[in-house]
Amino acid sequence: MLWFAFLRLIGLMTTLLAASLVIFVVLEVIPGDPAEVMLGLNAQADTLAALRAELGLNAPVYTRYINWVLGMLHGDFGVSYTYSVPVAELIGERVQVSLPLASGALILSTALAIPIGVYSARHHGKIIDTGIMAVAQIGIAVPNFWIAILMVYVFAIVLRILPSGGFPGWDENFFGSLQALLLPVIALALPQASILARVMRSALLDVLHEDYIRTARAKGLSNKATLWRHGVRNALIPVLTILGLQFSFLIAGTVIIENAFYLPGLGRLIFQGITQRDLIVVKSSVMLLVALTIIVTFLVDIAYAAIDPRLRRRP
Amino acid sequence: MHANSLKSRLLCLAGGAALTVAALVGAQSSAEAKSSLSLGMVLEPPHLDATAGAAAAIDEVVYQNIFQGLTRIGADGSVLPSLAKSWDVSDDGLTYRFHLNTGVVFHDGTPFSAQDVKFSFDRARSEDSVNAQKPLFSAIEEVVVVDPDTVDIKLNTPSGNLTYNLAWGDAIIVSAKSVDTNKTHPVGTGPFKFDRWMKGQEIRVSRFDKYWGDQPKLEQASFRIISDPNAAFAAMISGDLDAFPLFPTPETIVQFQADPRFEVAIGTTEGETILAMNNARGPLKNKLVRQAISHAIDKQALIDGAMFGFGTPIGTHFAPHHPAYTDLTGLYPYDLAKAKELLTEAGYPDGFSATLKLPPPTYARRGGELIASDLKKIGIDLKIIPVEWAQWLSEVYKETNYDFTIVSHVEPMDIGIYGRENYYFNYHSEAFTKLIEQLNVTADDAQRNELLVQAQKLITDDAVNVYLFQLAKSGVWNANVKGLWINAPMPSNDLSQVYWANE
């Protein structure tokens, strides 16, 4: 187990390093000079040169790369070109929105998907099952930003019971902040819940055909007890895999949802950083998301090994 | 994990989620007090130091609210006194003496004096200055402190524009004490002081009690950043926002016009929207080709189609509300036969192909498609390339690597760009350069206007670019909000005169 974890850890570090290189190179290659973006049409050449010097853009490429990576290892993510504040501080502020948003969506989608999936599998082939699966199919097909617009229309414009967007801040208005995240969480969760419900249903249907289910029934367990004790538990393994994979989709989804509800989250920070060529913000935030995704994958791998002893014995 | 516990846990999760949802709905906070105002903005300012960046969003927050200059621009575009209560010009036009207001303090309590004026202008003109509009100060030779309330600005050449130039957001007066932190915590002399910036969300200001002038009626104001057009619409129509001075989607304006809760104000901007042509490239070197293109574009159809009717045809690179504007829209009427004829005369009877690089704003992306279809009718095949702003700045503006592009030139009184060396149009005209030189040393308004008319005629005759329309400023706000600017003679949301009418 330890050896397995160690090998996975080496893999993780290599992936992170490779990712940092790719991110850095891509952002070096795209056209656009941060100084030009900041100073606009009337800027003189000497003014641009002065700003470039101030931003430290004159150092050679490899020096900047090494400084960036070494800085991150020390927890120093650089200073934003445009905002002139440490990137770590910016990310810290934004995570307070993005993390509750993504985890709220993860919890909500799980809370919706598992009972629905189980219910659907139990009524396999009946009209209710077909109905639920049709709704889930629509949930997968409809893009989340459209759900967002629709919900804003209903709840903010017609009913006026929820704000149309924005975020008051946890320290100023805790309840208002929860409220502000409600529609975004639902918009983000619905498509994920649809996918998860379908996976839950088919996984459970597969499991229900296994021999051990028949055995369980044969030894006298009730239908219900068999379903929960042996069916759902085994079916949760593929659901867990999908949950792990969904994490990166959730991260990508937050970029869109944060724009639709004008939430000051990490996704919008990156989006804005790209258009303003605040490259240091983009580099560091993307790197953080990559690290997060890789770490989640790593944890899922370790969790498998913990659950399934067969995986541990692999050389 | 026991089976029943698994089931109950899952049910708990689902129940808990449902309860949270139920608790959160229906407890919407009531309307804000009537002494505060929330305004929507599409772009977030990169920072709040107007002396170190070109972004209009900076000025839209800080200019005339937090920071002030010696002079200021009024809602009608005229130059008015601000920190300087009056000024005299010497007979040779080379010395401007500014008499400053007394009793002015910065928000941190530091008193304001002539020293601050000298410091601000010397800093803007210095070697390592990062002022985006450094050319505004090019005529200044020296700034001399006469006494704490008087300052002389000595020029190296007479400049008829000086008081206007000093009214730009880039020419605001800063204090040496707080200058280094203005980007994140601006400290000025204006009627509002900076409170808090929740990045990506909003910037808050509140009334400054020790303001030297008349106290503003608003106690608080917040500038909210809403970049998504659908979200902007939702925030306005649901009443979450009080005002959106530069509303991003013209297609939804009609809905606000029909709703008595809102006031819709269509005003003018300084944005001349043009189809810029690279005068140094291929067929576009030929004036006849450029004239043919000018004839081939239906400008009114473009305004209707791309801007939903909001925009004024211009015919030259000049704002129609300026006294020196001359109407040249009749020079190149929409006439395909004439365009074909000119193109044949120029030696391109079958047209040619070229690229059209489009920056992100709606006017460019939507307008570009219409222009491409217009030009196809005379055989010019345009390949549309959408670009980001950063890419536009480096590829089109700096490297002049383009054939056509659409852009709105929002800087006020910027006809002088046609006389600049290596400007991205690649237009060179001795006659034009001479006109601008003459203009710079002319102080008399009537004479200046005459020269400006000549300049407008010259660039239009040469068909340097196709002059499409003057960008409109479409503002939407709560019908009870009074005193916001209708026109945008300078990027600013001056809140000093804003108040709520009775409910």
From TrEMBL, chain A:
Subcellular location field: Cell membrane
ABC transmembrane type-1 domain location: 95-300
Transmembrane residue ranges: 7-30, 99-119, 131-162, 174-191, 235-257, 286-307
Keywords: Cell membrane, Membrane, Transmembrane, Transmembrane helix, Transport
CDD domains per UniProt: TM_PBP2 (cd06261)
Predominant location: membrane
One Gene Ontology molecular-function label: dipeptide transmembrane transporter activity
Pfam families: BPD_transp_1, BPD_transp_1_N
GO CC terms, sorted: plasma membrane
Highest taxon of source: Bacteria
Topological relation to the membrane, as annotated: Multi-pass membrane protein
Assigned protein family: Belongs to the binding-protein-dependent transport system permease family.
Protein name in UniProt: Glutathione transport system permease protein GsiC
Lineage of the species this protein comes from: Bacteria, Pseudomonadati, Pseudomonadota, Alphaproteobacteria, Hyphomicrobiales
Gene: gsiC_1
From TrEMBL, chain B:
UniProt keyword annotation of Aminoacyl-tRNA synthetase present: no
Residues spanning the signal sequence: 1-27
Native species: Pseudovibrio axinellae
Main location, first listed in the record: periplasm
Localisation per UniProt entry: Periplasm
Domain Solute-binding protein family: 80-409
Name by which UniProt lists this protein: Periplasmic dipeptide transport protein
Superkingdom: Bacteria
Family annotation (SUPFAM superfamilies): Periplasmic binding protein-like II
Lineage of the organism: Bacteria, Pseudomonadati, Pseudomonadota, Alphaproteobacteria, Hyphomicrobiales
Record bears the keyword Signal: yes
